[in-house]
Amino acid sequence: MTRRTVRIAMNGVTGRMGYRQHLVRSILAIREQGGLDLGDGDVLWPEPVLVGRREHALRELAERHGLTEWSTDLDAVLADDRTDIYFDAQVTSARQAALTKAIAAGKHVYTEKPTAADLAGALELARHAREAGIKHGVVQDKIFLPGLLKLKRLIDGGFFGEILSVRGEFGYWVFEGDWQDAQRPSWNYRAEDGGGIVVDMFPHWEYVLHELFGRVTSVSAHVTTHIPQRWDEDGKPYTATADDAAYGVFELEGGAVAQINSSWAVRVHRDELVEFQVDGTHGSAVAGLRGCRVQHRSMTPKPVWNPDLPVTHSFRDQWQEVPDNAEFDNGFKAQWELFLRHVYLDEPYHWDLLAGARGVQLAELGLRSSAEGRRFEVPELSL
User: Fold this and answer.
1) What is the largest CA-CA distance in the chain?
2) Is residue 196 over pLDDT 90?
3) What is the reported pLDDT for 303?
4) pLDDT, tens digit, for every residue of 109-135?
5) Are the beta carbons of 6 and 84 closer than 8 angstroms?
6) Cβ contacts of residue 113 below 8 Å, gap of 6+?
7) Confidence band of 1 (pLDDT split at 50, 70, 90)
8) SS3 assignment, position 111
9) How high is the pLDDT of residue 128?
10) pTM strictly above 0.90
11) CA atoms of 280 and 293, how far apart (whole Å)
12) Fewest CB atoms within 10 Å of the CB: 97, 193, 307, 341?
C-alpha cells in the first residue's frame, strides 16, 4: 500500500460549519477510516493546516485533535509548495480575496458558498480558475443528504410521472440574543458583513432545484427583515440590516414550479428543519434531511371538503416511508471524497466555481426581484 499525503489549507475552521462539518466530520473522519482509498493500493492521507485570524483558537483546535500545523499567515501557507489544496469557510465578505490569492498561487480550491459577494466576482473567480488550470469545487451538500438522495432515486425511477410542482419549507426560530443566546452568529444579520438569508440559502436552492428538477429559468421573491433588532455575542443590541426571511417562486426548465420559504423567524411544525414536497401526475413525495415519504396515485385517498365534520383520520398515516436501501455517509464528507478523487484521479466533477456562480446569480436576482417588485428571468451562465 502506498500512502500519498495531500496538504489542505483550511481557512475558517474556527467557525461552526468549518469546524463541525468540514474539519471533524469530513477531513478528520477520512483520517479515522485510514485515508481515502484511491484504488490500486494507493491511499490518500489528508493533512490539514488550520488557518485563521485567532492564534489561540487555532492552537486549541490543533491540540484537541492532535494536529501539528496551523497558521495566522495565509500568504505564507499559500506560498508553501507543500500546500496542495486551499479550502475556504470564512465569512462571505472575505472569501473572494482569499480564493483569488489561492488560485494565483496555483492551488486547487474548494470552497463554501456563496463564492463571492456578487455575480461579477463569482464569474471572475471561475475565469481565474479556468485560466490557471487548477481543479476547483464548491460545497453543495444538500444533494448528498439521505432524504434528497432517496428523492433522486424516485425521480430517476420515474415514480412521479410528470413533475408538476415543488414546495420547500426551511427555517427555525433564531433567538434574538437578549434573553437567550442566538444560535447563529450576529454577522448573519448584517448586510454590510455579507449576511442575509437570501445570499445564504438561495445558492442552496439553486443547486437542489437544478440537480433534481431542472434549471431555474425565472425567480420572483419577497424578502424581508422580520426581526429588526438583535443582540450580538457580547450582549450588545444592534440593528439587523440583513434579511431574515425570503419567500420565493422559481420557474423551472420543463415547466414545473417551485415555491420555497426560507426563514429564521419561524417556529418549526414539521418533521425536519427542511422539507420538500414534490407532486407529480403519478405520485408525490415529502423529503427532509433524512426521511422521505411517498404516496402513489394508486394509493391516493379521495379527500372530500366538509368543514362541518371533524377529520377522523391522519393524513400523514396515508403515506409510506421510503427505505434506506443503502448506507448514507455524511454529505459533506461524501463530497470532500469526490473532490479529492477529482484532484488526484481526474474523475468527473461538475460542482465547480461556475456552478457556485449560478447560486450567487439566483441570490442577486432574488434580491432585485423583491426590491423592484417584479419577476426576473435567470439567463444561463457561461465563461
Assistant:
1) 75
2) yes
3) 87
4) 999 999 999 999 999 999 999 999 999
5) yes
6) 138, 139, 140, 203, 204, 356, 359, 360
7) confident
8) strand
9) 98
10) yes
11) 14
12) 307
* Reported confidence tier of residue 313, pLDDT bands at 50, 70, 90: confident
**Spatial distance between the Cα atoms of 13 and 110, rounded to a whole number of angstroms:** 14
How far is the C-alpha of 364 from the C-alpha of 225, rounded, in Å? 17
Cα distance between residue 136 and residue 235, in whole Å: 39
pLDDT-based confidence at residue 312 (cuts at 50, 70, 90): confident
With 0-12 / 13-18 / 19 or more C-beta atoms within 10 angstroms meaning exposed / middle / buried, residue 114 is: buried
Query: Would you put residue 207 in left (φ > 0), alpha (ψ -120 to 50) or beta?
Result: alpha
Which cell numbers hold the place of 23? 474539519
Cell of 53: 485570524
**How far, in Å, CA of 152 to CA of 289, rounded?**
13
Whole-Å CA distances, 229 to 21, 177, 186: 30, 10, 11
**What is the C-alpha separation between 275 and 262, in angstroms, rounded?**
11
Average model confidence (pLDDT) across the chain: 96
For residues 216 and 218, what is the distance between their CA atoms, to the nearest angstrom?
6
Q: Give the residues across from 2 on adjacent strands.
A: 42
DSSP state at residue 124: H
375-383, long-range: CB within 8 Å, 24+ apart, which pairs? 375/218, 375/219, 375/220, 376/218, 376/219, 376/220, 377/217, 377/218, 378/215, 378/216, 378/217, 378/218, 378/219, 380/215, 381/123, 381/354, 381/357, 382/354, 383/123, 383/126, 383/127, 383/130, 383/354
Cα within 13 Å of Cα(24), Cβ side: 11
Residue that has been written with the C-alpha cell 460549519 in this structure = 17
Residue 286: what residue type? V
